[in-house]
Specification:
Chains: A alpha+beta (154), B alpha+beta (280), C alpha+beta (786)
CATH class of the largest domain in chain A: Alpha Beta
Number of strands of chain B: 14
Strand order of the largest sheet of chain B: 4-5-10-6-7
Largest sheet of chain B: 5 strands, antiparallel
Oligomer: heterotrimer
Strand order of the largest sheet of chain A: 2-1-5-3-4
Order of helices and strands of chain B: EHEHEEEHHHHHHEEHEEEEEEEHHH
Number of strands of chain A: 5
Structural class of chain B: alpha+beta
Structural class of chain A: alpha+beta
Chain lengths: 154, 280, 786
């Protein structure tokens, strides 16, 4: 067991972790933040994407102990004062989710892409979301939503 | 998927990392973790100790070192892609680094981790081989420098001893007359290369001089297409040299492509990469 | 007293924003993997690494002694827990061979991934650790993985006691078929291989089972079919259904793969009873690839016969359909879902369809989005192109010449299409497409000998969905009915609870069902709450699959609404002392004909119904109604799709440039949600055309083992889609609606392959096997050259 302190959605947590505990399990099972989901186990699908230091990261490919001292944002921490983040709002307005299982990871990947200034065109958004798989939407409305959010944010 | 159990130590310095690494027979270094952790989750890798070097921030840099650019082994792909020094002096590196994995992978994965993993389907090993880059390796008995041509020794095998750490990669500053290209074909954007070709072409008043051609996923290690390189050095036109690109390679067959198709792709992508590097 | 106000807006036909999003967007959904009642033990399944083997010894001692292990059991030890086999609900012929299928194998394993033992431990990680310690000795047996090889003489037999790999032969042929075939001027026969597809719902399966001291059982499962699962658990476990509660909370996609009754559901339930502790299992993705059903895996020989001027006179299909190693819930029936529509959108008087179900040492096949209809549509829409080529006719002209154009239209296969307008869909598609400029671009590229060639491909289709009229299901030997139920409950203060028997997992029923009910009752869509996915709440239901929810469950809502209005009318008639016939109901309010100021709102009636101070004699208090609707016909969406592709003739790399779809799904309830369904279906079908293929080697080893080598595409591989609609209202139901969930998947695969072949036709390419990988495209070009 190893002592780890990490900040998740602005709250500091001190935990005793087994080194093999993946960050996604720490979030889901230690902290009860079950918004982050697991889709593939091979770093392919991006469902488990969270922000680490503001950048998108696949939390199934990072150990909880590696997050010691870092700031993490999950889908639960994205809205502020009850207001959806612009990307969440755009997903709602453009019907960019169906079953919703990939949505938290997709939203956070999009937030990171927009923050980095890379959501500049449809093709840039499509390329920028290459690490996130959705089986329901065919991505059409996701791309529309991210475009709209990027236009609103910039 | 959950890895088998292991111990975990955080290295406070390079020396500390070497000490920890030397203290346990099947210890492994953990940098970004984007090569090692997937293998551990599938339980294909079962190190008993992980030495986390991810906090050695002094190994994350891109520096002008006079005749070459020095890249710290723990520099993330994202920082390699965005490094102005590399964009100016050696654009082949950021171009290929931008094609590694996906944004999330590039946010965590490091250049050193990618090279030390020795995956023949990986992009950066080929680029280093094509550039005749040098690997700076630190071990218990000090530092040694290994040229890329001697670094990659087999599938997931490199010149690194189990007790050694890759600390720096040195890539040449390319003259403005040298063009470069990295042409990658993968089934999906996020996938490893089915085949990719890296090229450097010396442009001489409308014709081409020397060319370097490196191949990804065409054998157990990244390869140089030496016959095609020699043909170009001997004055052959790109279209005539291209059919030689796959000569001597031994690609494997898998669900992405047969060996025969990989050889074909190498010649097509190689020709296109040579033409792009030549500015055509 | 506050009552909810009535509203006059019409919600059906508008893109009401989804109610589902509030929790999903905030990470507040309830997936089964979130659930862990106190005391939960975690289950891991030890699976066969071999496609076919004798189990000679299972040694569990080391695993039992490992840290945190609660129990380790093999198939023999659990045998007494099963009252019956995992059920197959569709024995398609009288003499079908249905091998026993228990949750764990005993004696022999028959596919890679077949469960051999289970480990229960205090944590997920410890269960996985201990599963590695279960020692199983196997004696490998010869295996057969491919449907063509399995029927060859001397092929390894999957179930040796059956003596054959032939599961069944099913045939439908019209009387004069053979004569028509012989009389035809032109006969075109083609062979098509449709590979395995792995459904890949983003949420892997998961189950939690909890047994109570009184014999009651609660099962949370990531399933499309909580009601069917409840029914099946009685058959497998012998517990009365009345004691079983199945909950499908938020479910992350299914596409047919969660329309099943799986070994792990039965195992978790049985073990929860044995241990007296909740048992939880969450599938890993690699496990999903072997333990959850696959789709397709069919080889067709397909024939069209026509007169020389292009009137198609006969169609013949002969298909070998892989069952896999066992029959899952509806495995043998999947081909039959396409059996009646091998004529496609065309009027073809003579008809012959034969299916041979074939066992192979592979993961069982079953429903994957479209189920049977993509298979049928692919072969007709590819072969219509071949026939056009043979006749020297434009393929669109050939299609138009043979379109069914008068409705209702009774097909040679015996079913009746209620409504459609195939010409209008194609007209609209061509308006959107600008075919002339595409052809001009194509011509220029061909003349210049460009590396990147352009192709355009069409697909015009109709399909039967909305499963299904119960009598027809009975006639084709399906075990249960095809009805569905709705309960509408007006609360005393005017809000509305709707209980549906459908079980959405991405389809947006919470929103669209509320739209339908809000319009019928004249209330605001926001006051209507839709409850689903819990058999304790929704007792009656046949769940969600086969584009049935709207055309069956949605129509049940309409019928239940009429019952509510009927009862309300009685109350108003009594309280206002007028004849029921003198009352008009509109916009949520009854008024007396000729006295528009004498009104009573539905909310006020709801209150009166619950207060029960002044009800007609004999009328029960409350304002609640249940309707069970059994559709008299299938639902018949149709449409016309076009794909435009660019093919790199040197590398074989193929990219979609545009995709245009015009569909007729009847009256649209929520256009944006319909578009979403169409987009998703098209994406899966494009992917089936260009990327996806579950590959087994000759020994039955699955080679596409994870999402790294089974290629589910990302946004980077797909284009935006251009979608539009025409609308012919379905006269079969009072809402005029048709199903929409599978149209894209059915239509798009042949459109894409037709486009790829069109791009390369000038090079002599006439077919490319699915999926059109870069290598297959390259080989097709090379073969055409030589």
């Amino acid at each position: 067991m190893r002592h780890v302190a990490l900040t998740v959605n602005g709250s500091r947590h001190e935990l005793e972790l087994e080194p093999r505990e993946l960050l996604v399990y720490v979030l889901r099972e230690r902290l009860g933040l079950t918004g982050t989901t697991i889709g593939c186990d091979t770093s392919s699908c991006g469902a488990c994407t969270v922000l680490v230091g503001g950048e998108s990261v696949k939390s199934c490919t990072m150990l909880g102990v590696q997050a010691d001292g870092l700031e993490i944002t999950t889908i639960e921490g994205l809205a502020s004062n009850g207001q959806l983040h612009a990307v969440q709002q755009a997903f709602h307005e453009h019907h960019a989710l169906q079953c919703g299982y990939c949505t938290p990871g997709m939203v956070l990947a999009a937030v990171s892409l927009i923050e980095e200034g890379k959501a500049t065109s449809e093709s840039a958004i499509r390329e920028g979301l290459e690490g996130n798989l959705c089986r329901c939407t065919g991505y059409h409305n996701i791309v529309r939503a991210v475009s709209a959010a990027a236009a609103g944010v910039s | 998927m959950i890895p088998a159990t292991f111990d975990y130590e955080v290295a406070e310095s390079t020396e500390h990392a070497l000490e920890l690494l030397g203290g346990r027979e099947d210890a492994k270094l953990l940098a970004g973790g984007h090569s090692l952790l997937p293998a551990m989750k599938l339980r294909l890798a079962r190190p008993s100790l992980l030495v986390d070097i991810g906090r050695l921030r002094d190994l994350s840099y891109v520096r002008d070192a006079g005749d070459h650019i020095a890249i710290g082994a723990l520099t993330r792909h994202k920082d390699v892609v965005e490094a102005p020094l590399l964009q100016e002096h050696c654009p082949l590196v950021p171009s290929a680094a931008g094609q590694v994995g996906d944004p999330q992978v590039r946010h965590r994965g490091t250049i050193g981790g990618s090279l030390a993993h020795g995956d023949p389907a990986s992009d950066l090993p080929t680029v280093m081989l094509t550039l005749d880059a040098e690997m700076v390796i630190r071990g218990p008995s000090g530092e040694r420098i290994v040229p890329a041509a001697q670094f990659f020794s087999g599938v997931f095998q490199t010149a690194l001893e189990p007790t050694e750490l890759l600390v720096e990669i040195r890539v040449p500053k390319l003259p403005s007359t040298t063009g470069c290209s990295y042409m990658k074909m993968s089934r999906r954007a996020q996938d490893w290369a089915t085949v990719a070709v890296a090229t450097l072409v010396e442009r001489r008043n409308g014709s081409i001089g020397r060319a370097a051609i490196g191949l990804t996923n065409m054998g157990a290690t990244p390869l140089r297409a030496t016959q095609a390189e020699e043909a170009i050095a001997g004055g052959a036109a790109i279209v005539d040299a291209a059919p030689l690109i796959a000569s001597g390679s031994e690609p494997s067959s898998d669900t992405a492509a047969s060996a025969e198709f990989r050889r074909h792709l190498a010649t097509v992508l190689g020709r296109r990469a040579l033409e792009e590097a030549a500015g055509r | 007293m506050t009552v909810t106000e009535s509203k006059t807006t019409t919600f059906v036909g508008t893109s009401v924003k989804r109610k589902e999003d509030a929790s999903l967007l905030r990470g507040r959904a309830t997936w089964v993997d979130n659930i862990a009642p106190p005391g939960t033990v975690h289950m891991a399944v030890v699976r066969s690494p071999y496609a076919h083997a004798h189990i000679t010894r299972v040694s569990t001692d080391v695993a039992r002694a490992a840290e945190g292990v609660v129990a380790v059991l093999d198939g023999a030890e659990l045998a007494e827990d099963w009252q019956g086999s995992l059920p197959c609900a569709w024995p398609v012929t009288e003499d079908i061979k249905i091998p026993p299928h228990f949750p764990l194998a005993t004696g022999e394993t028959r596919f890679q991934g077949d469960g051999v033992a289970v480990v229960l431990a205090e944590s997920r990680a410890l269960a996985k650790d201990a599963a590695e310690l279960v020692e199983v000795e196997y004696e490998q047996l010869p295996a057969v993985a491919h449907v063509d090889k399995a029927l060859e003489k001397g092929a390894p037999i999957v179930h040796s006691d059956l003596g054959t790999n032939e599961c069944y032969v099913w045939k439908l042929e019209t009387d004069d078929f053979q004569a028509a075939l012989e009389a035809a001027d032109v006969v075109v026969t083609r062979r098509y291989v449709q590979p395995r597809l792995i459904p890949n719902a983003m949420e892997p399966r998961a189950v939690v089972a909890q047994a109570g001291p009184g014999g009651e059982l609660t099962v949370w499962s990531a399933t499309q079919v909580p009601h069917i699962l409840r029914f099946a658990l009685q058959l497998v476990l012998g517990i009365p259904e009345s004691k079983i509660r199945v909950i499908a909370p938020d479910v992350g996609g299914g596409f047919g793969s969660k329309l099943n009754v799986y070994a792990e559901e039965a195992l978790a339930a049985a073990l929860a009873r044995r241990l007296g502790r909740p048992v939880k299992w969450t599938e890993e993705r690699a496990e999903n690839y072997v333990a959850t059903i696959h789709g397709r895996d069919v080889v067709h020989e397909f024939t069209l016969a026509a007169t020389k001027d292009g009137k198609i006179t006969a169609v013949k299909s002969d298909a070998k359909c892989a069952m896999g190693a066992y029959l899952q819930l509806v495995t043998p029936g999947i081909p039959l879902l396409g059996a009646w529509i091998y004529n496609g959108a065309y009027d073809i008087p003579n008809y012959s369809v034969t299916f041979t179900g074939v066992f192979t040492n592979t993961t069982p096949t079953d429903a994957y989005r479209g189920a049977g209809r993509p298979e049928a549509t692919y072969v007709i829409e590819r072969t219509i192109e071949a026939l056009a080529e043979e006749l020297g006719m434009d393929s669109l002209e050939l299609r138009r010449k043979n379109f069914i154009s008068e409705f209702p239209a009774t097909l040679a296969s015996g079913l009746t299409i209620d409504a459609g307008d195939f010409h209008a869909a194609l007209d609209k598609l061509l308006e959107l497409l600008d075919l002339d400029s595409i052809r001009a671009d194509q011509k220029a590229r061909r003349e210049h000998g460009d590396v990147k060639q352009l192709g355009v491909g069409f697909s015009t289709y109709t399909e039967m969905c909305g499963l299904a009229p119960s009598r027809i299901l009975g006639a084709v030997r399906f075990a249960v009915g095809g009805w569905d139920s709705a309960t509408i409950r007006m609360q005393p203060l005017g809000s509305v609870q709707v209980v549906t028997g459908t079980s959405p997992h991405g389809q947006s029923h919470e929103t669209t069902w509320a739209q339908i009910v809000a319009d019928q009752l004249g209330v605001d869509v926001d006051v209507v709450e839709v409850l689903h996915g819990d058999t304790a709440v929704s007792q009656l239901g046949m769940d969600t699959y086969g584009s049935r929810s709207l055309a069956v469950g949605g129509v049940a809502l309409w019928h239940a609404s009429q019952k509510i209005i009927g009862k309300a009318r009685e109350i108003v008639s009594h309280q206002l002392e007028v004849s029921p016939d003198d009352l008009e109901f509109a916009n949520g309010s009854f008024s007396v004909k000729g006295s528009p100021d004498r009104t009573m709102s539905i909310q006020e009636i709801a209150f009166q119904a619950h207060a029960a101070h002044n009800l007609p004699d004999g009328l029960e208090p409350g304002l609640e109604a249940t309707a069970v609707y059994d559709p008299p016909n299938f639902s018949w969406p149709s449409g016309a799709h076009a794909a435009i592709v660019e093919v790199d003739t040197e590398t074989g790399d193929t990219r979609l440039v545009r995709y245009v779809a015009v569909d007729d799904v009847g009256v649209p309830v929520n256009p944006e949600i319909i578009d979403g369904q169409v987009h998703g279906g098209i994406a899966q079908a494009i992917s089936a055309a260009l990327y996806e293929e579950g590959i087994y080697d000759e020994d039955g080893n699955l080679l596409t083992t994870t999402m790294t080598n089974y290629l589910v595409p990302s946004a980077a591989e797909l284009p935006s889609f251009e979608t539009d609609r025409i609308e012919t209202s379905s006269p079969t139901n009072p809402l005029g609606v048709k199903g929409v969930g599978e149209t894209g998947t059915i239509a798009a695969t042949p459109a894409v392959i037709n486009a790829v072949v069109d791009a390369l036709s000038h090079l002599g390419v006439s077919d490319i096997q699915l999926p059109a990988t870069p290598e297959r495209v390259w080989r097709a070009i090379e073969e055409a050259k030589s």
